[in-house]
Automatic annotation (TrEMBL):
Matches recorded under InterPro entries: Cro/C1-type_HTH, Lambda_DNA-bd_dom_sf
SMART domains xref list: HTH_XRE
Matches recorded under Pfam families: HTH_3
Gene Ontology MF, one: DNA binding
Domain (HTH cro/C1-type): residue spans on this chain: 34-87
Protein name (record): Transcriptional regulator, XRE-family
Gene3D superfamilies: lambda repressor-like DNA-binding domains (1.10.260.40)
Length: 89
């Protein structure tokens, strides 16, 4: 057991953690990781698209794509405030 303050410090440094709710949506509900993260963060497709400077339909296509380019994954992850590694579920 460690002091709670130490736990919080270690948790903050572990920037690639994935919340259980996101993992569950991807594995149990067969939802794409981008969608699971977006919904977990309470964002709409239009809001994420605006952050990326693209249209909502263009983002919807990317969100449902099974193979995104590395640069696209990194841009979307940054727009969501997560790391690209957190999209690997």
């Amino acid at each position: 057991m460690i002091p709670y303050g130490d736990y919080l410090t270690q948790f903050a440094q572990a920037g690639n953690l994935i919340p259980h709710a996101v993992v569950r949506r991807v594995l149990a509900d067969d939802v794409p990781p981008l969608r699971a993260w977006r919904e977990h963060l309470g964002l709409t497709q239009a809001e994420v698209a605006a952050r990326l400077g693209i249209s909502q339909p263009a983002y919807a296509q990317q969100e449902n794509s099974e193979r995104l380019r590395k640069t696209s994954r990194e841009r979307i992850a940054a727009a969501l405030g997560i790391t690209a590694a957190q999209l690997d579920i």
